[in-house]
Amino acid sequence: MPVNITALAPDHLLPVPGVSLGIAEAGIKKQHRKDVLVFKLDEGTRVAGVFTHNRFCAAPVIVAKAHLALSTVRALVVNTGNANAGTGETGLEHARTTCAALAELLDCETKQVLPFSTGVIMEPLPIDTLVNGLPAAVTDLKVDNWFDAARAIMTTDIVPKGVSRQITLNGKTVTITGIAKGSGMIRPNMATMLGFVATDANISHALLQEIVRYSANRSFNCITVDGDTSTNDAFMLMATGCAGHTEIDERNSAEFQQLRDAVTDVAVTLAQMIVRDGEGATKFITVQVDSGYNETECRLAAYAVAHSPLVKTAFFASDPNLGRILAAIGNAGIEDLDISGVELYLGDVLVAEKGARAPTYREEDGQSVMNQSEITVRIVLNRGAASSTVWTCDFSYDYVKINADYRS
Amino acid sequence: MPVNITALAPDHLLPVPGVSLGIAEAGIKKQHRKDVLVFKLDEGTRVAGVFTHNRFCAAPVIVAKAHLALSTVRALVVNTGNANAGTGETGLEHARTTCAALAELLDCETKQVLPFSTGVIMEPLPIDTLVNGLPAAVTDLKVDNWFDAARAIMTTDIVPKGVSRQITLNGKTVTITGIAKGSGMIRPNMATMLGFVATDANISHALLQEIVRYSANRSFNCITVDGDTSTNDAFMLMATGCAGHTEIDERNSAEFQQLRDAVTDVAVTLAQMIVRDGEGATKFITVQVDSGYNETECRLAAYAVAHSPLVKTAFFASDPNLGRILAAIGNAGIEDLDISGVELYLGDVLVAEKGARAPTYREEDGQSVMNQSEITVRIVLNRGAASSTVWTCDFSYDYVKINADYRS
After folding, report:
1. Which residue numbers in chain B have pLDDT < 50?
2. Quick one: B292 and B355 in the same domain?
3. How far is CA A336 from CA A340, A383, B300, B360, B395, in A?
4. Cβ separation of A89 and B230 shorter than 8 Å?
5. Structural domain harbouring A59
6. pLDDT tens digits, residue range A318-343?
7. Does any CB of chain B come closer than 8 Å to the CB of residue A107?
8. Domain of B218: which CATH number?
9. Helix (H, G, I), strand (E, B) or coil at B232
10. Which helix (H) or strand (E) holds A393?
11. What would the mean pLDDT of A150-177 be, rounded to a whole number?
């Protein structure tokens, strides 16, 4: 069950002027399930994005990157039920055909449409089924459709994921609304499974691209469920400019930083929701590494702990078998790490120092933290001023069950 | 249940002249369980070893490496029930005290004893209990004790692991017998959990060290159960010289190569036994990567597949959801990999080529390989002449169960 997520309700997600959304049941994998989502963007909307680094990246990822580089964007189309990944030349043709079909319905150019897919890998996309579902999605287009959109992009997700924030820029109210999907195959590298954030802020394309990287590096790039980087990861940020304030085009302006921080807040909330709804998750775990020599080694240590099946199963069992965390740190690939300088905290409890269990540590203190559903592991390397934080979940019977049964 | 391991019987393990073994119940963690093993080596025996690269390596690893560098070796002492890892200065004192106590009983020097431990990490070693168990182990010393020794070093292992081989060198029969333990926290880096191989061959120390590295790189360094490198890994090779042939001191001699290959055969058999008895294993999987640019990238691809929880749960479910293997290859960190050149075979079945499912692939052919208990995944990178093979197992409910319950 998802760990401490407040159930999303339709009125939690605010419309973003300039963005309308339409949903349909195309029947790509299962009947009676919303599986197509279309975003229609007002003219002048700027779009920036980051994509998976998986070398086997999906056909829609390749096409979306190419279209983004060629043109302004007027629409996005997302399908679930099939990832269109590991599908070769035919997959690329299918992604382009999808864009062309939507472009005709919306009266724009094919290169102004970005395609996204999620689902099973290495099965042919049923292109006719998808294309036949597009007219219904276009008919459904409206600005207050974000909640249904969040539900339409779910695969193994148990709960829909979305969040809205509002800020004031130059006296104008600016809205930021985002949705995301993802639950397994989660170890994003420059993005998550799929995340879409829109705002009506008015900002230059260069600064929008800067915000998408900045916020991804502090959100989707800090989470892991199982260490598997997906073929279809994408995180898109759209800015319609409809809020009516002066364009933000200065990196040093207060407005830029305000918008950047608000978008990052939305992205962090979405990324943490993905971990809280991680496949089989029963606990939400923050791994914070402090006082490292540089951020790279802090991330190495944090991910070594967050990926260790032994650490994750101990969390599932609420067993303070904390030597496994030391073993994971020792296994992080930090060549010159002096273990006698490392301190390990579970919540506020000092567990280990000087290469051994702390004299003050009592098993019942560790047990009491382990029994909680939100746990912070803090590792102090004592060799510098850098820090890094990674969010993850535990590893349960249900993870195995979900992934052993996924295609059936 | 272990995958296709022939049950070990006492007469499968041949005595090695010059090596006697003694076992005792010290009661380190549980009563009525053999938990101490002593090897006594004839004078003149040469010993070489490789050890874990985990920075949080255990106290006995540090002491064993130091003693090995200082002196010839007359004895080894192994305990289960406690890893003496993450135990700081006290742990080092305990390891030295163990060596001193055994040295006194065997009338040799402390530095001539190598200590080894396996069990829970970051709990103090009950040193008095261990030392009090040593006299009984010494009383038990005999040459035909290998089978009981294999049982005495088990922790979460279901079956004892051992193998013997004989070869003829210069007209003399030479015996090689080895035992190993390990089932979880298995992704050895220069060694396995614990492996001990002895031979009565007569070989120079330099060439013995070369054999231990050569054979480790082709055996224990090619396996993974869960990707967690232990704090206590060690693989020791002992050569007593009792077989009576002329000393092997030429790298180019036929005798050297014959002995090296026989030791490697023993090490590979032991390493594969560890995977076959991997925690929760139901399948034995060989991941073979061919036609790579160099061995490093072949190993990256092989380990990316062998470590992916999504791939491993699909094997557990016998589900030919083979796109997960493509995603893992794409995620291996081979920056310039051209996916259109990659071929994927499951057994003899061509599954994918040119970045997509092969036109000849039929789901029922993949299913029929997936239903087997021994599966070979072959990945052809088509960009060079290098190869690498990794052995692993699947990921089941029982892995989670075993590791959620380990300390109880």
Report:
1. 408
2. yes
3. 12, 11, 23, 51, 33
4. no
5. 10-276
6. 999 898 999 899 989 898 898 889 99
7. no
8. 3.60.70.12
9. coil
10. strand A386-393
11. 92
